[in-house]
Structure formats: C-alpha cells, structure tokens
Known about the structure:
The structure is a single chain. By secondary structure, the protein is an alpha/beta fold. The chain has nine helices and eight strands. It has a six-stranded mixed sheet, sandwiched between helices. It has a two-stranded antiparallel sheet with strand order 6-7. A hairpin with a 7-residue loop joins strand 1 and strand 2. The termini are far apart. 22% of the residues are buried.
Amino acid sequence: MWDLGFxxxxxxxxxxxNTINAYADxxxxxxxxxxxxxxxxxxxxxxxxxxYRMSWEEVIKSEIFRQRDKSNNNSIGYFHQKIFNxxxxxxxxxxxxxxxxxxxxxxxxxxxxxxxxVYVEMKNKHNTMNxxxxxxxxxxxxxxxxKDDDCACLLVEAIAKHSQNSQWDVTVDGVKQGHKLIRxxxxxxxxxxxxxxxxxxxxxxxxxxxxxxxxxxNVPDVQAPSDTVMPELLELIDGDRAxxxxxxxLLGFYEYIGFSE
Length: 261
C-alpha cells in the first residue's frame, strides 16, 4: 500500500524519473576537450597519483568521476527542491526562493510561533556555505522580513548535523545576529512542517530505492559512458607513460611561459 499521503505514487515516480534523467545528462562520454573544459589542475593530479599510489588510469578516472559528481550534486538538489511542486500549498518559484509555503490559517514555525508564509533556501549539506555565502543568505532573509512581517525564512539542509528547527545565528561583519523568524531546519523537520507527518521524510527514504528500481525498469536503458581521455593523452605523448606529467601540464598550462614551446 502507498504510504505517502502528501504525494501520489504516480507523481513520486514522475519526480524520480525526472531526477534520473538529470543524472543521464551527465553520462556523456569524456574526451580530452570535455575533460579540460574547466581546465584541470595538473599539479593536483600528479600529487594525487604519487601520494595515493594510483595508476595514471586511476587518476584520470577519479578526476572524471569528480567532475561528474559535481554535476550530480545539482541533480540531487533538483530532487530535494522540485518534489515540493507536488506538495499542497507549496510553490517552487523559477527564481528567488527555492520553496515558498503558504497557509491562510497560519504556519506554526516553532512552539506557538505562527506566520502565513515561509520562504526557504535549501542546501544539500550543512557545510556547503562558507561564511560569505552564509552572510549573504542571512541578509536576504533579513530583507524579506523587512518587506513582510508575517513570514519566516528557513535555511533547510538535506544533510544536517542534527534533526533540528532552531534559530539561525550568524556573524556578519564581526557582529553576531539572530532572529526568531530566521531558522535553520533539517529536511525531516521541514517535511513535518509542510505535511503534518513527523515521519514524512523517513517514508520518502524508505520508498525511494524501490521506486528507483521501478522507474529504471520502465525507461530506456541508461548507457554507461565510454571515456577516451586516457587513450588521447597517451597518443599526445606517443605512448610514453613517463611523459604523462608533460601531457597534463599541456592541458592546464599550455599558454604559460615555457610550456607553449
């Protein structure tokens, strides 16, 4: 029996399928041009090979995985944000805030504190914001409270240190600031807030593996990529593996003095 009262089985499958499609977009095969599209760091790759006792194949494969994984984190962000398109009274704007939740009867943000609207910034992990980014986000929330005193602003974290719904205190320009309507909330607490079900996020997680398997069984096969970076690098140096550092330097430093010659 379907156990998620806040989203239909059909809608959840559709959302999972859309997320898988976003993953599939990152499975394009890598050649040298794509591999170096953002310019790799040759010195880091050489250190990685030596320190971790890796082969050149392993180093190149690891770097390709890192690049894909960076894009896949965006796909997971899509999963966490866009699912609220299917949740009653939630809106996922095209720009501005990640999610907006409205209730005419009022939203209990925390311990008897009610507002009519909640504005949300979502983060995949608790440590993805540096102090400058956190300060900018906090000031955005302060600005929203100045425009609308019947709202709350939440920083919702998918991977938080704790299950929490607490006042978010930050230091901006050396001054510690805090407001009861600016809060740091783990995603399980946010699901509880918008669905009324304390176990809503747990149910999502419990349902997810089977839904992914179902969707993958009913869509065209996602083909594994065939990367050609390593063969192309070897071709540049006529197969001389001892010259691999030179091949990598030419990727990152080809216009630098000495390297261009």
